[in-house]
């Protein structure tokens, strides 16, 4: 399918399903596909991110991934209160890039477009880039400073993993790049290479624990994940915000796309999403098929051991190590900003 055809299907869904709803403000297409050429072939397993903005202080739960007319859409609801000023958007590292690069799908009042135009204009200003980097760093601090030893093991892994992975987003934010989810480490590596900082890359992977992983070993872990994924997708009944990521329709992204990443030599980068998907599958099994947790546990435990995480004490030590690394990460981000000619106020601007 061509990217442009997928956009048209997303626009149709917005027009027929979202726009008639109560409180509809507008919708935009974000993520990597929003920036692809219209005539390009949509990569296998890629989805189109659709952000639906609704009036009010809160938004409904994420609708998630589903097939529509042959296109895989992923729909997220956002409250207008979080986007009703350009300052809110520009200061949020996870919102600003999506608005800046987003393709407007519907904007009946014109409010969303007005915010976007101002966000595009101010996005590269050094003041706002620094604020977004601080936003990402604060998310890391908040997440890694929180310990909840009474949670199930898979939840504790998730609570450590995602704040750790925001380190890659700090790098991407400093370079004015989209803070992508699944491919964050691969994208961060590209930025560091571009700015002559490739020697810093292993430091990021060391926080995750994948710096020394071998390709064959990661492929072995993916095989284990595929077993757990299929069991969780089959058993899933309880709704979670990530439920649509653990379905037969989402399998190409979780499994096949990870395999392609591994076999292209990017196995260390693939480890993040493998671990994230594993933990989410384990959460589904705990809710809907607890009898499968024990027989499938060795596969998950093997992966975590290879990442250097065997216990709560390991999680806490790793979190403290990454917290101690944050000043260094801030220095790397500052170096990128200084060298980035697209940032207003950089030494090369």
Q: How is this structure best described in words?
A:
This protein is α+β, with helices and mostly antiparallel strands. It has two domains: 3-123, Beta Polymerase, domain 2; 127-137 and 148-326, no CATH class. It has 13 helices and five strands. The chain has a five-stranded mixed β-sheet, sandwiched between helices. α6 (153-174) packs antiparallel against α11 and α9 (215-235) packs antiparallel against α10.
Q: Write the H/E string, N to C.
A: HEEEEHHEHHHHHHHHHH
As laid out across the biggest beta sheet, the strand order is 3-4-2-1-5
What kind of sheet is the major sheet?
A: 5 strands, mixed
Helix-residue proportion: 55-70%
The general outline is globular
Number of domains: 2
CA-to-CA gap between the ends? 39 Å
Poorly predicted regions are none
Kindly name the structural category. alpha+beta
Number of helices, where a helix is a run of at least 4 consecutive DSSP H or I residues: 13
Please provide the count of β strands. 5
How big a fraction of the residues is strand?
A: 5-15%
The rounded Rg comes to 20 Å
Q: Return the average pLDDT rounded to an integer.
A: 94
